[in-house]
Design a protein that fits this description.
Blueprint lengths: L1 E3 L14 E7 L4 H12 L3 E8 L19 E7 L7 H14 E12 L7 H11 L2 H5 L9 H7 L3 E9 L13 H13 L2 E8 L1
Parallel strand pairs: 1-2, 1-4, 2-3, 4-5
Antiparallel strand pairs: 5-7, 6-7
Length: 201
């Protein structure tokens, strides 16, 4: 199994017994967080290797470890595609298809834009075009049409559901000062729609 480690802070308890994991991230400091999570998982999840690379190019080049063609059974991609430009998304999905074995799946979770022509839809596009939202929230582009991108990439049997997230203070791992809490609540009001689903190669 291959994992883009954008969700490294989240629990990996959902991975089944005997999972062999290839983690990919361009940030070397992610290794520490990943190691902490793997300790919690015990022997259930095995880290095969950590690939220090961008998801747009995970190939084995310049003697560095990468992800080989047709080598993984599933790609789990959480909150990553919504942080890429359209060009980066196209390249990343092409890379995902390259590394997947035949009849294997990509499992995706991402923020997406609201229904067209709604007030929030226009706000999402404005904040993204002006680079306000991506600057404040680690590159997140809240106006993405990720499901359409996956379909255009040529995946088969695309199944996904769009849902609306409900605010919960339990989602915050530590106390926030009033200004930061207001910022987070405001951001959540703008970006509370997402997709969860899978597609077969």
């Amino acid at each position: 199994m291959f994992w883009k480690s954008g969700s490294v802070r989240e629990s990996i308890d959902v991975y089944p017994e005997g999972t062999s994991l290839i983690a990919v991230d361009s940030n070397p400091h992610v290794v520490e967080l990943l190691t902490e999570n793997l300790k919690k998982a015990g022997e259930r999840v095995h880290l095969k290797k950590f690939v220090l690379a961008s998801v747009e190019d995970m190939s084995c080049s310049l003697g560095k470890p990468g992800v080989e063609d047709n080598s993984v059974a599933a790609v789990v991609c959480t909150m990553v595609l919504c942080s890429l430009t359209d060009d980066q998304t196209t390249k990343t999905l092409a890379e995902v298809k390259r590394v997947l074995m035949p009849v294997s799946s990509i499992i995706a979770l991402a923020y997406v834009c609201k229904k067209p022509w709604t007030f929030q839809y226009f706000v999402q596009h404005l904040l993204t075009k002006l680079l306000i939202y991506p600057t404040l929230f680690n590159g997140c582009r809240c106006n993405k049409e990720t499901l359409a991108s996956i379909k255009q990439a040529g995946f088969k049997t695309v199944q996904a559901e769009k849902g609306w997230l409900q605010w919960s203070s339990e989602a915050i791992s530590k106390p926030l000062n009033p200004f930061t809490l207001l910022l987070v609540r405001s951001a959540f009001a703008i970006v509370n729609s997402g997709i969860a689903g899978f597609a077969e190669k």
